[in-house]
Amino acid sequence: MVGDEYYPDHLLPVIREQEVRYRRFAELREQVLLEYGYNTARAYWGDLEDVFRWAVERDKDVLALTEKDVKQYIALLRRRKYSHNTIRRHVTTLRKLYDELISRGHRNDNPAKRVIVTSVATKPNAV
Q1: Residue 23 and residue 20: Cα distance in Å, rounded?
Q2: Does the residue 112 lie in any domain?
């Protein structure tokens, strides 16, 4: 936890809001990961931590992303040169997170549901 003595008063509400967001996210993340084996849960955990950091950097609530946000996140994964399968796993992980939110009555939609990850066509080799 961040000590109050290190932050100006005008920034404290932002810090506290981020802490609350992270606690909500972490609780939900743990619920999503319960049904998976160790390796799958570890991969999904990393995916969820990554999208959480991405959202915080853009002052977005990871539990309230839009379809446009998900597409922007996928664009970042492509710029990082992640493989097609890794990007698909990230999207699958997001779908599971939002399905859990829907099942708890916190959302009515899943912004990752309609997002389709297409493979990027490669240029043919020169002869």
Answers
A1: 5
A2: no
